Structure formats: structure tokens, C-alpha cells
Amino acid sequence: MLRNGLYIIATPIGNLRDISSRAVETLCDADIIACEDSRVSKKLFSLLGIGINKKFISYEDHSEEQKAQMIIDFINQGNSVALISDAGSPLISDPGYKLVRLCRKQGIYITAIPGACAVITALQLSGLPTNRFMFAGFIPNKDKARGDLFEELKNINTTLVFYETAPRLLKTLARALEIFGNREISIARELTKMYEEVICGSFTEAINHFAQNEPRGEFVLIIAPAQEKQSSVIDIKEILRKRLGETSLKTAVKEISEEYKLAKNDVYSMALELKNEQLP
Ligand code: SAM
Prior knowledge:
The mean pLDDT is about 95. The protein has about 280 residues and is α/β, with parallel strands linked by helices. The protein is built from eleven helices and ten strands. The strands form two sheets. A five-stranded parallel sheet has the order 3-2-4-1-5, with helices on both faces. The protein has helices at about 20-30, 40-50, 65-75, 95-105, 120-125, 145-155, 170-180, 205-210, 225-245, 250-260, 265-280, and strands at about 5-10, 30-35, 55-60, 80-85, 110-115, 135-140, 160-165, 185-190, 195-200, 220-225. The chain folds into three domains: about 5-115, Tetrapyrrole methylase, N-terminal domain (Cobalt-precorrin-4 Transmethylase, domain 1), CATH 3.40.1010; about 120-225, Tetrapyrrole methylase, C-terminal domain (Methyltransferase, Cobalt-precorrin-4 Transmethylase, Domain 2); about 235-275. The N and C termini lie far apart (about 80 Å).
């Protein structure tokens, strides 16, 4: 029997066997399951062979605040409540933080049973630095908001991790290329599932890949830290400086952006800066 409190439980992000035995035991023993979509959670329970003769309550983004108090009332009445999301770790681009905050304020017992999380799995597979990383959640859909976010993050010296959906992936990559330059990236798709795939390379390589292979499934986009870009920018600047002495600005920009797979706009701005530096 579980003591009354809140149990934050990770469920699989694809492969059903990625759930811990402690998670399964706790889901079996909990009095109430707080979940995003009870149909999704009941399906998971039935696949795991867990009975569904308990109370399921929905806990979604738009009802978070009012539902949080209801859940706390259940806990104060002596119930154990398991919080799960449709997939993966609750609270990671999923609801839950307001509930945890309220539980903390009211001195309610809380524990977490860790498990699958797409951010961490993608990072482990990326080959990019993991000592410092920043998870920036979902990339906004509106072009202006997307560009603003990228501008805000472009000089941060940590690996950047984002969630993205299939229909938006190519648009996002194109915009990111303009702002970050042709940095090293890793794109993880359908992690732990049958068609798991990790594409590593530059933005332009990834764009070429997904222009030929329609993006399908769920994605995590990881971008190398700014510092790596800065050192390559210095190298490119030197090469560009030399080339500007040999040929026209237009030709130098064209050649270098093609040769080093860089966004033409970035190389053009760099070339203008160099030209201005040379002015008396
Ligand atoms: N809380 C979840 C977690 O722990 O990762 C994430 C929930 S968020 C609503 C869903 C997003 O996570 C997807 O749009 C995708 O970007 C990412 N994601 C979830 N499962 C994934 C998988 N198997 N492979 C790649 N990305 C995944």
C-alpha cells in the first residue's frame, strides 16, 4: 500500500519495455491516476497488464490550475495519486509543474519514479557535448517567434535541445540555418521505436536528407554550442578575407557559402564587415 502523496511516474516514449518495475508496481497500487488523455493511459495500462478499475482524472495544460487543487484535495483525503503523461517523463514539455509547486507549498509528500525522456535519450545519441546543455522545449510555430527564440539562443555556449514535430521540421531547419549558421546538429527521430534514426551533420546536410526523405514521427533537434561555431567563424573569416583579395565580393560569397555549406546571408554579412574594416 502506498502512503498518500503524489507519485510522478515516467512511462515509455515508444518501447513498452522501457518502464521500470517500480513504475509498474506504483501504477498498480496508486488510488488515482492523473493523466493527460485517459484513453491513451488506459491503453498503456492494458498493454502492461495493469487493471484499470481505479479512478482516472485528466490533468492537461489548460486545466492545470483548477485540477491541481482537486488532486491535492484527493491526497489530503488519504489517496495516492500517480501523475503520468501520454509518453515519457511528466513535466518535460508536459503538464505537472504547477501541481508539484502547490504540493511543495502545502507540505505534501512527493516522489518521482524516473525513466524514459526524449531529451536525454537524444542527447546521449547525438555525439554533441553533454557537459552543459539547455533544453528549450518546443520550437514556436510562428515564424517571428521561432526567429526570436533562435536569436535569443544563438550565442549561448551550451548544446541546445528542442522538441519538434514532423510537419514543421524543414521550415525550422531552414530558419535555424539562417540564424545559427551551418552548425553541427543531430536530429533524433522515433527514439526507442522500430524506425529509430539519428541524423548527424550540418544543417544543410540535414535539410538535404529530409528534403529527400519526408519527415515522419517524433523529433528531437540538437544544435552544437555557440563556441564551436565561433571558432569556425574565425576560420571562415580568414578564408573569406583572403578570397576577397583575389576576387569580387559576390563571387567570394558564392564560392565560400557553397564550399563550406554556409548560409549565403551569413557569409555576405561577414564579407561586408570585412570590407568595412578595410575602409580608411
Ligand atoms: N515528456 C516527454 C518526454 O519525456 O520526452 C515529451 C512530451 S512532448 C509533449 C512530445 C515531444 O517529445 C514530441 O513532439 C517529440 O518532439 C519528443 N518525443 C517524444 N517521444 C519521442 C521519440 N520517441 N522520439 C523522438 N522524439 C520524441
